[in-house]
Amino acid sequence: MTKQTLILTGLMAGLFFQTAYAAETPKRSVYDGRIQSVDYNPNDVVNIKAKPGFVTMIQLQDGETINSGDSASLAMGYGKAWGLTSKGNNIYFKPLNHQPTTNLLFTTNKKRRYALHLSMAGSKSQPTYILAFNYPGDARYKQLLEEQKQVQAAAVLRSSQSRNKAGGDYNRNYWGKGKKALAPTSVYDDGRFTYLRYDDAKSLPAVFRVNSDGTEAAVNSHVEGDTLVIHETAEKFVLRLGKSVLGIENRSYDAKGKFNMTGSTKGRTVRLRKGKK
Predict the structure, then answer these.
(1) Cβ distance 230 to 207 under 8 Å?
(2) What are 227-236's pLDDT values in tens digits?
(3) How many domains are there within the chain?
(4) Cβ–Cβ < 8 Å for 62, 155
(5) Residue 140 contacts residue 148 (beta carbons within 8 Å)
(6) Where does the secretion signal sit in this chain (predicted)?
């Protein structure tokens, strides 16, 4: 089978992405990243980052509780490393040592099952203070959707204002490898948002951020005209549509949100183009 490759300038270097785990990374509140939410799915494992000395609260649906008195309703892989209690529809736990990575499984009176992966937040990442599960149809879910619409509208305004700045201060130093059919016409970022422009009627792919451990996490995004606007920058993204996969690497990525301007003087003007088969 002929491999199809996207090239920017220079020699193409291979990108290697580890197989993604079927784990869900909660969405962070726009007001405080330590307050998080995730849509309930019985087939998802939810990642939770904790921190020694701090309590994490899991909030279930109103009226939903762990079956009291039934020891089979809750199990933890490394229970001695965690303090855990529950009250009503809330579950509280905190790590008792610095390396207590484990999993937590439980069922509730609403016949729902939950699977959580508990690990420690890194020095540069925020722990989870509150994680609320969302359930389609209830009032809290509808409120969340409304808040997301407001955030999206604000993001459109900010991105439009940013792109209208004189001079267009963009980083275009993106390299990629994978399925040619998923290739955007151009890729660039302004230090805050990443833009994937498509000048045809292609079906837009799902976009995932590649974490430092090789796992993938869904990103927040919206469509603005012919451009898919991703609400963050990252060193690596993966685009997926059906069985097709395309990896994209930001060669000028800066974790502080600004790109490196000290490389080639032509680094900002390199354009993504489709390579030969």
Answers:
(1) yes
(2) 899 999 999 9
(3) 2
(4) no
(5) no
(6) 1-22
Same domain, 167 and 269: yes
Name the residue with tokens 């509780």.
65
Contact 104, 80 (CB under 8 A): no
E strands in 162-224:
174-178, 186-189, 194-197, 206-210, 216-218, 221-224
- 11 occurs within a structural domain: yes
Beta strands 130-134 and 35-39, pairing class: parallel
Q: What is the pLDDT of residues 75-125, one digit of tens each?
A: 888 888 899 999 999 999 999 887 789 999 999 999 999 999 999 988 777
Per the structure, the complete domain to which residue 106 belongs is given by 41-134
The answer to whether the CB of 25 falls within 8 A of the CB of 246 is no
Q: Is residue 258 part of a domain?
A: yes
Per the DSSP assignment, residues forming a β-bridge with 93 are: 56, 84
What's 209's domain CATH number? Answer: 2.60.40.2500
Does 126 share its domain with 199?
A: no
Q: What angle do CA 258, 259, 265 make, to 5 degrees?
A: 145
pLDDT in tens, 22-68: 567 888 887 788 999 899 999 999 999 999 889 999 999 989 998 76
Bridge partners (DSSP) of residue 221 are 230
